[in-house]
């Protein structure tokens, strides 16, 4: 599928973006092992989360779909999952595979996790290794490092583990296995990866606070029962990022994103844009289901290049392709470092954003752990390719709004992995 974008005069309006992808996955997975029924509103009906839904059902969990975005998960309790009769297909979703592997490591049965070609290339040694240390048998291709993964779980014991990378998926896999382990599991993280699992676990483990201790960059978990929860999923800030960036880039724009999640482990991109000189205001902040939610207002302004590195990187890990687009229109140099993780996302996002943005006329150079962009450069519309990566496709669409002429994004169907309705919403905001 192709998406064609032309230069626009401005983006104006108020929108709600679809529910947060990370929180939607977790609502299903934790709801599945909780006691009682978990009601999920504003669930993200995107390909990645639907893969988690299918896997959870294959483990014997009944999930009622009241509408596209509203679900009731009939939790089977801590020990209620059933051995799946077939291979579990995680499609292209790393979150599904890694978090589910953590839960399956705790189950006294046999399961196999696979996914599409893109996912079968992604590194799984990072979860397989700690899960083995906890006592699970985890096998995979390439010496146990690549999917499909075969898991024979049960009889886990807690470990103390230092994460080699700031990854919420790895942290969550160990935490979920920790629910099934004897003794406590302690995780140290090198940087602030998103903490949605910790927040939801704490909310579901009401009255058992001694089993869930969150200290700065350290989380401790002990086996315990989870209670069901009513979850209202906030709008996904990683989806909102495209419209916020567009509003900052296109003169005369003002866009409000209502009810978007503003968890501090996810707002690195807003901080980066503000540092670049963008006019971004976050208002009406309140808490919903243990997560901070607010309205974000973005207006066009003069932008300058910045440096992004260290602890800011995990706080905006999915926003680097769109940052590169914004940087191409900012005055001066933008330097991204400490972001080698980008090379093992859905695709190598450093290589691919550099190749595609150069086709539009941007000056961007790869570095092993990031990239350098010199701006501003006028962009000229042409044919670009998503490489099957949703975040690349949407970033290129936003670049097309600032480019002369017409920009065609080949392989735009992958946008549905995280943001169904993106194109319609973008058109509704554009003039
Ligand atoms: C996610 C964590 C991030 C992110 C991914 C979703 C999650 O990956 O890139 O889109 O839901 O936990 P890492 O934890 O591997 O950095």
Poorly predicted tracts of residues: none
Total separate domains? 2
Task: Give the fraction of residues assigned to helices.
Answer: 25-40%
CATH topology of the largest domain: UDP-n-acetylglucosamine1-carboxyvinyl-transferase, Chain
Categorize the overall geometry: globular
Strand order of the largest sheet: 2-17-19-18
The largest pleated sheet is described as:
4 strands, mixed
- Structural class of the helices, strands and pairings? alpha/beta
Q: How would you name the CATH homologous superfamily of the largest domain? A: Enolpyruvate transferase domain
Oligomer: single chain
What Rg, in angstroms, do the CA atoms define? 21 Å
Distinct helical segment count? 13
Written overview of the protein:
The protein is an alpha/beta fold and 431 residues long. The strands form seven sheets. It has a four-stranded mixed sheet. The protein has a four-stranded mixed sheet with strand order 4-5-3-16, with helices on one face. It has helices at residues 21-33, 47-58, 94-105, 125-133, 141-144, 168-178, 196-204, 237-249, 268-275, 320-328, 349-359, 390-402, 422-429, and strands at residues 2-6, 12-15, 35-41, 62-67, 70-76, 88-89, 110-114, 137-140, 146-152, 156-157, 160-162, 181-182, 184-188, 212-215, 218-222, 230-232, 254-261, 279-288, 291-299, 307-308, 332-336, 363-367, 370-375, 383-385, 406-410. The longest helix has 13 residues, at 21-33. The chain is built from 13 helices and 25 strands. It has two domains: 2-19 and 234-430, Enolpyruvate transferase domain (UDP-n-acetylglucosamine1-carboxyvinyl-transferase, Chain, Alpha-beta prism), CATH 3.65.10.10; 21-219, UDP-n-acetylglucosamine1-carboxyvinyl-transferase, Chain (Alpha-beta prism), CATH 3.65.10. The structure holds shikimate-3-phosphate (S3P). Residues 22, 25, 95, 167-169, 172, 193-194, 317-318, 341 line the site of shikimate-3-phosphate (S3P).
